[in-house]
Amino acid sequence: MRAFGWVCKRTVISELRIQRQHSSCGLLPNVRMERMKQSITLVLAFCVIASSASANLGADSERIEDAYGTIVQRRLRDDGTVSVVYGKGRYLYMVTFANQRSISESYSRANGTDLSEKEIMKFLKANSAAKWVPANTRTGRRFKTTDGTAEATYGILNGRPALTVRDVRR
Predict the structure, then answer these.
(1) Residue 85 near residue 77 (C-beta atoms within 8 A)
(2) Which phi-psi region, left, alpha or beta, contains residue 88 (left: φ > 0; alpha: ψ -120 to 50)?
(3) For residues 107 and 159, what is the distance between their CA atoms, to the nearest angstrom?
């Protein structure tokens, strides 16, 4: 009787294995593989878009121009750096270049109103992967990165409130 039970169980298990093989060798793996390919493609596309849309300290002039829009003003400064003002959407971006790399960036609203806390944090985060911490003084709002590579101030620049971020390694 035990031998017969084992044979019956063996038959049932074999039938289940055959059913699994039939269901998994048809359309299902192709659908899963196709979805995985689409997911990978979407992730890669997002990364490309995100990297091309963001510009920050250390970026070259071409990348900055692609991200920040049309040039409003360009000026050669006495110290050999070049300052360029870009306009895009509701923001003005003033970028200082040394050796075609961004060493300082200022962000302000085109209409001259204050930046919100959310906007300030967005601009700070775009400029360093390190954590930004407040370093406020009596003279104004200041921020610095925990790794000591950048600092920022929020105050009046050219008659409008602006956040200025600069690379301190230079």
Answers:
(1) no
(2) beta
(3) 13
The CA distance from 106 to 10, in Å, is 74
Rounded CA separation 9/36 (Å)? 37
* Partners of 156 in beta bridges: 161
Count, residues in the chain: 170
d(CA 123, CA 152): 10
For residue 95, give the nearest of 86, 25, 50, 147 by alpha carbon.
86
**Residue-wise pLDDT tens digits, 77-118:** 999 999 999 999 999 999 999 998 999 999 999 999 999 999
Q: What is the pLDDT of residues 22-51, one digit of tens each?
A: 544 555 556 566 666 666 655 444 443 333
- How many C-alpha atoms does 61 have within 13 Å on its Cβ side? 12
